[in-house]
Design goal:
The chain has 580 residues and is α/β, with parallel strands linked by helices. Helices cover 46% and strands 9% of the residues. A 9-stranded mixed sheet has the order 1-8-9-7-6-2-3-5-4.
């Protein structure tokens, strides 16, 4: 059987890893938007006003938000096909008519997927196009639906990377959004997508695929991703056909209980779904039924729907709307309408987490293991608790451990602590405003490689620690024995962008020559910070640069992403000038 050649990706359908979950044959529930914003927006540019308003709402909660990620996200950043486009791609690939299949099942997409899987099955086993897939997965294909799942998984696995050729990399505005999203402070991600985008954006999060992994594992519900409809990395996990959906709903009592806990304790932001998505409505209806009609109002600020507006001139807004979820009862929720997602993600980057996610996961897991699986033969010791804000805790160094420890374990505590440090710790240390100085050897061996691993474009100090470790000879660093990431930091460029360089050369050079003159000028803050990267160091004292940086650093919580980036670059330049 000769099959038509696979055409280039049809960008008209390249919209997401999968489309909205199929709409079932039932009457759609009403969405009734209210008029006017949910609260008074602060004065300022629309994006900044929204970010401040949304951030204020999120800070009213006692827990960090969860993201509920749908096909629109993968569509936006990876250019992947939506649900119907995915099926159409594989129907076209084997010369079948998807429209005929849809008409034959009254437009039911899961049913059409099952029909497509049936006719795809013999083609996959015989055609040379799928020979590599057969070699890898033939032993696992044991029903007539598995071959299509393997082909779909392969397709998405090959297109899940953020690399040249996808919108999230090629489009500058979308790249900014992704940079903000990957730095967002959220407690977890729930997704119905098959692709790996959420894993790439949140590499520190533990990923659970399907209900089985979630049920059989010790999930901590801290810094985790739940791929509830499967993953392209596990082809047979995909929830694709009508049979898959029936099985999913028959076994989802555990998942529903966990989702209820998340919805009750966290704000949940639905991103990449349509407001009319029946699958999401079913989830919310289940949660509403569990909560009961008398307590629906308690959820009104727990649920946010992000509704994308194609008009680039759209000002981002938050408004209230109502979803009819129970007979005679509606659930109030928050609707966010916007064109660019940057103001939304910018708010998420400004939330605060008490501990790095890796530490939180380890603390949570060790406590869980201690309580759930105690060892009756292990001796118990008294634990003394001191409030962090008490005078007795001013100089307290806290180590949390479970189990027995050797002297070697204790000697390695510096490395353990180093892995929890962030670029802010290094900046404060170099500026001399950190309570406890950092050990140079620990920074070079552990801290810097760890920061670079998770912030590949980080601009952080390095020369102070080279100097203190006696690794600078006549102004030249001794590179032997250093991690490659540290060597890269030594050579990194600390120049501002081309626009700021040109503006500095035409307006500032020779007019403002010291850091104080720059900071006291009327230029925008982001440009003043960029000017600090351009000033001739022969024209000012380094202590003056330090004082200016300390003043600016005090504003860190209120700085924009670009201002923060420039500030950390300026601090790295101060480190280079002072210690190299």
């Amino acid at each position: 059987m000769e099959l038509p050649e696979l055409a280039d990706d049809d960008r008209a359908h390249s919209a997401g890893s999968r489309g909205a979950a199929p709409v079932k044959k039932q009457v759609a529930k009403k969405l009734t938007p209210t008029t006017g914003p949910a609260s008074e927006a602060p004065v300022g540019p629309p994006g900044l006003a929204f970010t401040g308003e949304f951030l204020a709402q999120l800070r009213e909660h006692n827990a960090l938000p969860y993201l509920f990620v749908g096909s629109g996200v993968s569509r936006r950043y990876l250019g992947l096909p939506d649900w119907e486009g995915m099926l159409r791609h594989f129907a076209d690939e084997i010369g079948e008519d998807l429209d005929f299949m849809l008409a034959s099942v009254n437009g039911d997409l899961p049913a059409a997927a099952g029909e497509l899987a049936r006719v795809f099955h013999p083609v996959w086993f015989k055609h040379r196009r799928y020979s590599a897939q057969r070699k890898e997965y033939k032993a696992e294909v044991r029903d007539t639906e598995a071959a299509l799942k393997v082909a779909i998984s392969t397709y998405f696995s090959e297109r899940s990377r953020l690399q040249a050729g996808v919108p999230g990399v090629d489009n500058a505005d979308l790249a900014v959004e992704l940079d903000l999203l990957r730095n967002s402070i959220v407690d977890g991600v729930i997704t119905t997508n098959f692709d790996d985008l959420t894993d790439e954006l949140f590499p520190e999060y533990t990923s659970y695929v399907g209900q089985d992994e979630l049920i059989l594992s010790d999930a901590q519900f801290v810094a985790e991703t739940y791929k509830i409809h499967g993953s392209s990395r596990q082809p047979l996990s995909l929830v694709l056909t009508a049979g898959d959906y029936a099985n999913f709903h028959n076994r989802n009592s555990y998942l529903a209980a966990k989702l209820l806990t998340i919805f009750a304790e966290h704000p949940v932001i639905f991103l990449g779904y349509s407001l009319g998505d029946q699958y999401i409505r079913d989830i919310i209806a289940s949660i509403a039924a569990a909560v009961g009609p008398d307590r629906l109002d308690a959820l009104q600020k727990q649920i946010y729907f992000v509704d994308w507006n194609p008009d680039p001139d759209t000002d981002p807004t938050i408004s209230q709307f109502f979803i009819e979820v129970l007979p005679g009862h509606t659930l109030p929720a928050q609707r966010i309408e916007m064109h660019s997602f940057a103001p939304l993600f910018a708010a998420l980057t400004q939330l605060e987490r008490p501990f790095p996610v890796r530490v939180l996961r380890e603390l949570s897991k060790h406590v869980y293991d201690l309580v759930a699986h105690p060892n009756p033969e292990q001796a118990r010791e008294t634990v003394r608790a001191i409030p962090f804000d008490s005078k007795a805790a001013d100089d307290l160094r806290v180590v949390f451990g479970v189990g027995s420890f050797t002297d070697e374990d204790v000697e390695q505590l510096a490395d353990i602590g180093g892995k929890t440090l962030e670029r802010e710790d290094l900046a404060e240390d170099v500026l001399g405003i950190r309570t406890r100085p950092l050990a140079a050897t620990n920074v070079l061996r552990v801290v810097l490689p760890q920061i670079v691993k998770y912030r590949g474009n980080a601009r952080v100090p390095v020369f102070k620690y080279l100097r203190e470790a006696d690794l600078i000879d006549n102004g030249k660093p001794k590179l032997g024995g250093l991690d490659e990431s540290v060597k890269a930091l030594i050579k990194q460029s600390l120049e501002p962008g081309d626009y700021s360089k040109k503006r500095y050369a035409s307006n500032v050079m020779g007019v403002l020559t010291t850091p104080r003159e720059v900071l006291d000028s009327d230029y925008p803050l982001y440009f003043k910070i960029d000017c600090l990267l351009c000033l001739d160091p022969a024209g000012f004292e380094l202590d003056e640069l330090r004082d200016v940086l300390v003043e600016t650093y005090a504003l860190l919580a209120d700085l924009t992403v670009n201002e923060k980036s420039g500030l950390f670059k300026a601090i790295a330049r101060y480190d280079r000038l002072k210690y190299s």
